[in-house]
Design a protein that fits this description.
alpha/beta, 38% helix, 17% strand
Length: 144
Amino acid sequence: MPNDTLPATEPVAVILVAEDDDLIRTLISRLITSLQATPLVVADGAAALTAVQTHGSSLTGAVLDVVMPHRSGIHVAAAIQQQGFTIPIVLMSGAIPAHLAPDLATLRGIILLPKPFDLTELATLLHVMIPARTPPTVGPTALR
């Protein structure tokens, strides 16, 4: 079941995952969780657009399937950029449909990840979306 809500406490990193394939969506979500980030998971392009409108300022990155029901990942990426969010965006696809190629050409800084891909490739890209954690303060000030 998609997790399109965020936890009550503010997470360090929130990564939007929009993928219509249940297995791929689950694998990506688990990978993000294993990296100590919070996946915001949706199953289609319309839900992804809603997530961007609702949680856009909390997002630190997005992993989007290109071909999804209701809206393409390319359209979601364009909406993210048009709303002024400057987050890393990974678009995943086995092939870019010809009718979407002109829209893809208008996007800035998008990372294309061809399917099938190795999870280590995606993990490397996800690390860019997860801000470095500040180590806890150690010393006399930490004891007060």
